[in-house]
Design brief:
- With 247 residues, this protein is of the alpha+beta class.
- The chain has a single domain, classed as PPM-type phosphatase domain (Phosphatase 2c, domain 1).
- It contains seven helices and ten strands.
- The strands form two sheets. The chain has a five-stranded antiparallel β-sheet.
- A hairpin with a 2-residue loop joins strand 4 and strand 5.
- Helix 1 packs across helix 2.
- It starts with a strand and ends in a 10-residue tail after the last strand.
Length: 247
């Protein structure tokens, strides 16, 4: 199995530093995206460390699961903080997808998202580890939109890689179907672009990965680009030439 991918990572129109990191390793069928947590020291360092640690573990231990790789990244960041106390407080989200044997296995911590585009429908595979999502899950609000309207902020996370020794990682798996597209993104995209707009971009771009990714990035920037914006659009196929990128 090979993967074809298009990756974009943009600082946006407000932030001075891009704290997102993305890597695609076609030979390993691996996609990793991390978003340095806003308000924490050295978020850009944390995201780079997480992506590098996940990539290194999967490359050296191909049987390791995405969840195990994220826990390894957590250990790596904590060790780095011990070596350099000036980095204390840095943390990151992490989203890992592994394509192999006709399936995708994925894991995540934080609010970076994985979407599936199948049969002209968009489905969010991950669930944000955020305060606003927990309030909706507890029934205090009917939807994220209602919570936001009441003033609840999107960026208050309940989990992060590098915060503590113990880390709860959510994971899942899914068998692949022909035509599946997988969108890995930081919240700089989905906070600016609605699910309906993502669906429209995929539908109108008809399988053209480059056009779809550029459309989504352009929409996020047009709507303000208040955060770093990173996305990787991935298609898995048998016997096709794989393409990948690191950012």
């Amino acid at each position: 199995m090979t993967i074809r991918s298009v990756v974009r990572s943009d600082t946006g129109l407000v932030r001075k530093t891009n704290e997102d990191s993305v890597a695609v390793l076609p030979d390993q069928g691996l996609v990793v995206l991390a978003d340095g947590m806003g308000g924490h020291c050295a978020g850009d360092v944390a995201s780079r460390l997480a992506v590098a640690a996940v990539s290194r573990l999967i490359s050296s231990h191909p049987g390791a699961s995405p969840a195990t790789a994220i826990r390894f990244a957590n250990h790596t960041i904590i060790e780095k903080i011990r070596e350099d106390p000036n980095l204390r407080g840095m943390a990151t989200t992490a989203l890992v997808g592994r394509f192999r044997d006709g399936a995708i296995e994925y894991a995540h911590v934080g609010d970076s998202r994985l979407y599936l585009w199948r049969d002209l429908q968009l489905r969010q595979l991950t669930r944000d580890h955020s305060m606003i999502q927990e309030l909706v899950d507890e029934g205090l609000y009917a939807s994220l939109a209602e919570a936001r309207k009441d003033g609840v902020k999107n960026n208050l996370l309940t989990r992060g890689v590098g915060i503590g020794e113990e880390l709860s990682v959510d994971s899942g798996s899914l068998k692949l179907c022909p035509g599946d597209l997988f969108l890995f993104c930081s919240d700089g995209l989905n906070n600016m672009v609605s699910d309906k707009q993502i669906e429209r971009a995929f539908s109108e771009c008809s399988g053209n990965l480059e056009a779809a990714v550029d459309r989504l990035l352009g929409l996020a920037l047009k709507r303000g680009g208040y955060d770093n914006i990173s996305l990787a659009l991935v298609e898995a196929a048998e016997g096709e030439q794989a393409k990948g990128a690191d950012v």
